[in-house]
Structures are given as structure tokens and as C-alpha cells.
Amino acid sequence: MEMAQPESLAELLGGRRAAIDATLPAVGFVTGWLISGHSVWAGAGAAIVVGLAVCGWRLRRGDRPRAVLIGLLGVCVAAVIALRTGNAADFFLVQVFSNAASALLFAISVVLRRPLLGVIVGAVLGQRTRWRRDPALLRSYSLASWVWVLQYALRVAVFLPLYLADQVVALGVARVVLSWPLVAGCLAVSWWVIRRTLPAGHPGLRHPVTGEVSPAA
Description:
The protein is mostly helical. It has helices spanning 9-13, 15-35, 40-60, 65-85, 93-111, 116-124, 135-164, 168-177, 180-197. It has one domain. It is 71% helix and 0% strand. The longest helix is centred in the last third of the chain and has 30 residues, at 135-164. It is elongated and about 65 Å long.
């Protein structure tokens, strides 16, 4: 049975555009590193320049300044790490740790019955924690959150061996391939899981069944 709300998770969360933007500084780093004859300084400088350009572009489009600045901060931290160690592969070290941490946090959230996918979607929809009082939604968000655990675990499984082997170009390629295509796939599969596991007749993500009388949206 079709759910009441027309939008998908991809439409609610808008992950593809942000994922594309996030890959550009990594491409800039690898390009600058290669053109300069493997200079970490050149790679770091190129990554920061591209990061600033992406930041300006996103602000002009009306994106939230906090989210934009957090993305730029991540680029700067990655560049500083590579500059401090002198190892170009260390530019991607933040990616290894952030994906490992994300996989762990999503898994723990499911065990604690506070699936992060539900937390994120609930915040976007302005529901706070009301969705947690709907057993069907709680179960569906929990099952779909495992898809996100697998997404982050896959990145770690690819990034870590390449990082340990000091494969800078391969890390850059993996950063692109495992960004928006993987995000798009994760959103599609987790949305499919939610649609398949919610019972027939459930009003959908926007309307948790809590037994409470809510004002009309």
C-alpha cells in the first residue's frame, strides 16, 4: 500500500547535493598533489581553495551557514593533519575515523532503541521524539538504520586498506565513488526498508501513530 506522504528520504534529507560538494575538496587535494610533484602543501592549499569556493557557492544557494562552515572546518582539519605529518594519505584520515564512528553510533542507537535515522528525519519534520511513541515507525527506523551502518562500514573497509597502503590517488577515487552514489543508494534502500516494514494503512513518516490527538499540519 502506498504511504500517505509523497516525498522519499532523498527528498526529505537532500543528501546527494551535499555529498557531491563534499567530494570536491578531496579531488582538489589529489589534483594539487599530483600536479605539484607530490607536494602536500600544494595539495592542502588546493583543497582549502576548493573548500572555500564550495562554501561560498553553498551560502549563495541559501544553505545553512552552520552546516556549510562545518564542512569547511572538516576540510581544514584534514589539510592540517596532512601538513603536520607530511603524509598525503593522512588527508583522508578524518574520513576513516568519521565513518568508523558513524557506523558505531548508528549501531548503538539501534540497540538503545533510538535509531539515528529516526532522530534525523524526526528533526527535519519537526516531530522531536513523537515518532518514538509509534512502535511501527520505531521498528522501521531501526531496521533502516542498519542500512546506514553498512554504508559507513563499507567505506571503512575500502578506505582503511588504501590508507595503510599509502594509495593517495586511489583514496581520492574512492572518496568520489563512495560519496554521492553510495549515499543515493543508501537513501533508496533505507526508504525501501521503511516502506516494506510499515504495516498496511500506516499514515507515514509525517504522521506517527501515538494515540494522541495532534493538531492538523
